[in-house]
């Protein structure tokens, strides 16, 4: 650090220009008469005594009489350095707090927060994903996927169901062919149109950013069940239902899991309507009491507001009003519904179809 930078630093620490100049001169000369310090620094002799008195009060220097003249020498700088370090730490902490308020506004107690930087959306999503217990639905570009890959890997390790949509332009669609998804997602689909960053965590947290151009990188963070449900349908309709699978973690002979009852109904309706009984385990909660429920039994019937087609299949549109799974368990029948279930006994958060090696061939 040159002398000008050092002088600027002392002034940032609270010294006046005269005080900074005088202190540097004292450091350079060691012990010197006050008048010599005034001559070296250009400080008026009528002011030098007040300047040195202020420096002495703040423990930078000490003054004494020598040969009937006021002299000055520097004090041990350890206390000065300690004070400067404390100031620096305080300023650094203040800077971090300002950055935190700029990038990551507090969302507790608020249903919607608007953030000014896309990085803030990513950071908030990572924090929520670390606490996810059931599902993550996320739509990303290839570069965004790499940014969130570690938290998705951790979620998969914890048994979280990860539905991933990778969005590219048609000209970049080959990029997806080179990507590895094992251990990062449960299911992956590829959308050949650019799409906004969209992530939903455990049905109650939404993270969204349009990123349409560099000056429009605001983001929305939602902490609300009802509003997240709106984004759930956006995800299902725009990022999921019409786009092809490129990866599925399910292998022959393993359990098949669903976090969306309508998708489950859509897949199994043809064989259930044909009389096939499917062993299943349902995790969810009682619609009346809100208590957590886990039921194991057999799926025996599918109920929908619209009748199935001739081949027994049901479209997502047909399932928009009602899609109920009838599960026989504990000697009785339970109606199993999806998000926002009102007609059923249980609102499911996960459906696990057991023994697919017995019945899965009938789905093909």
Written account of the structure:
The chain is α+β, with helices and mostly antiparallel strands and 364 residues long. The protein folds into three domains: 3-78, Arc Repressor Mutant, subunit A; 112-248, Endonuclease Chain A (Endonuclease, Chain A, 2-Layer Sandwich); 256-363, SH3 type barrels (Roll), CATH 2.30.30. It has helices at residues 3-12, 17-29, 34-41, 45-57, 78-103, 118-130, 142-157, 174-177, 225-240, 261-273, 356-359, and strands at residues 32-33, 61-66, 69-74, 112-115, 135-140, 161-167, 187-191, 197-201, 205-209, 219-223, 245-248, 256-258, 278-286, 292-304, 323-329, 332-337, 346-353. Strands 4-10-9-8-5-6-7-11 form an eight-stranded mixed beta sheet, sandwiched between helices. The chain has a five-stranded mixed β-barrel with strand order 13-14-15-16-17. The chain has a three-stranded antiparallel beta sheet with strand order 1-3-2. A hairpin with a 2-residue loop joins strand 15 (323-329) and strand 16 (332-337). The protein is rod-shaped. The protein starts with a helix and ends in a 5-residue tail after the last helix. Residues 112-354 form the Transcription regulator TrmB C-terminal domain. It holds the Pfam family TrmB. This is Transcriptional regulator. Residues 10-67 form the Transcription regulator TrmB N-terminal domain.
